Amino acid sequence: MFLKKARYIVFAVLLLLAFQSSCQGPFTYETHPVIWVSSYELTFSASEVGSNPSPQVLKIKNTGVQNLTYTITDDAGWLTINPTSGTSTGQVLEHLISVDKMGLVSKTDPYTARITITSTQACNSPQQVSVSLNLGKEPPPEIAVTPKDVRFVATVGGQSPPAQAIRVRNSGQGTLSYTLSEDASWLNVNPASGTSTGSENVHTLTVNTGGLGTGTYTGTVNIVDTNAVNNPQAVNVSLEIGTSLPPTIAVDPDSLRFNGQVGGSNPASQRIRVRNSGQGTLNYAVSANAAWLDISPAGGSSTGQDVSHTVSVSISGLSAGSYAGLITISSSNATNSPQTVAVTLVVGQVPTDNKISISCSPTSGNTGDIIDVPITILGNTQEIKAFGLDVTYDTTMFSYVGVNKGSLTGSWGTVTGSQIASGARIGGYVGDPQLAIPVGSSGTLAVLRLRVTCTSCADGKQSQLCMGSFTDDIIGMTMSPGCATFTYRE
Question: Which residues touch 382 (CB under 8 Å, ≥6 apart)?
Answer without folding.
Answer: 439, 473
